[in-house]
Design goal:
about 90 residues; mainly alpha; two-stranded antiparallel sheet; about 10% strand; elongated
Length: about 90
Amino acid sequence: MSKPVTSDLLTGFDEGELYVFKRGQLEHVERDPDDNRRKVRLTEEAYQCAVTVGKAMRQRLGGYKPEVSLIVSAVLLFGTTNDEAVQ
């Protein structure tokens, strides 16, 4: 069972910021100000399809493994530029 988080445990941390646990300590994760990506929820089926496409691409790209977000972005952009897919 988890214990409630008290305010004294949160001293030194900012709400809404990211932290990573390293060497027994929580360290603040700096956000890239040029990163304009958005978080989008995917269904499990869509995620697995993107993973499958990524595995196929990896063979053709000589071992390079593209991120799922890159694959989903490429498929979405292709779909919006393909007149048949839009209809």
